[in-house]
């Protein structure tokens, strides 16, 4: 009798425990970080929102700001994902406002008026808990009372982000069991592997709370100078942006190296290629672009072309659409060598080429907005900037390929995806460094589909013969899987240009389904 009634008793325990767990979920999150409404939005949130600061250095009140959107599906069981934008120096509110956040932002009723917010049907919170992190201190809403903390580097940024995560999971212990992923784009191609390294080392040391780290996904990410910076000339030719004779000339004189310390003839040919591309939106060659004259001068400061030639064809352009991708100072073709990183605000004013952050700036500089999201006022931390000049950022890491090799060897899941019309980090360079890892192809290059249409192409790789490998639809902690995908017609910020497709591959990949 006891044996036959056991399943029923277990079922009763499970049913009784479920409401207790969900009440704990609600109770454990800090009430003072709860966001109950937002200026510009009318209606109920589909899920709970939390935001505020986590202090990573008490002495200087160095504090990193986060905005958490709980999953609309299953907060207790869905993955916890951190989103990071690039730069270095770009606020992750870029992603929140313009890419995969819970709202679509529209201009206000009057010029300069508070933007109107509508629910985003393709928010990544549909299938995951997602947290937008402003990192390092000095970026976005994150700050320190000691401005010396605004001098930082790749490794320092990663160490502070790890401190943040450990303290954040103490604030939200209910999410410690959830699968944890890092995500982002552009210079997050450096942020994410270096943060992952801190997380994995902490796990190996037994640091508490233990983070249930499972892997990461990176879009159009900065990875390796040789691959990233050498891809733009072949990409430009392949996309039909330069003629074959120009491509053959630059290829013959540059011998496959199109950046760095090249000879005068090579540099002149590279400059001519860049001149042909000058009016393009480098973050999406299909999108419109507006050029500030001072940006164009900064881009060609070291050009061998005469100033009169460089100014041929200049026109006054209206500002037709909002564009706001923040990436590294790509147009200067500068390598990530150890030392101070060049920042766009210091090169040509506050704006990035082909960008406008008007809607986000109006909203995030509104003191009512800051109050309800628990952010510090402008009087203490200044105006919000998409891409800040407040920080002095130093490169102190090299190629990220070795990091990717390390984590895939340890069994972590990795998705590398590229918008195929991005001239900033062209997909051929990304595809080349993925192939350079030497992994065996287990899912040959093929189209992947959304709504019965080709949404891009994908290729899956195993780790190597040392480890057993399987496809993404059957994940095991003993296995390593790397996937590289392209998004047709998409640019540097994939969730912005292709929101439906981005949610589709994101959902499938998190679920371990075949793309």
From TrEMBL:
One annotated GO biological process = secondary metabolic process
**Signal peptide start-end:** 1-28
User: Does this entry carry the keyword Oxidoreductase?
Assistant: no
Q: Which PROSITE patterns match?
A: CARBOXYPEPT_SER_SER (PS00131)
Pfam family of this protein, just one? Peptidase_S10
In the Enzyme Commission scheme, what number(s) does this protein have?
3.4.16.-
Similarity comment: Belongs to the peptidase S10 family.
Query: By what name is this protein known?
Result: Carboxypeptidase
Protein's organism: Eragrostis curvula
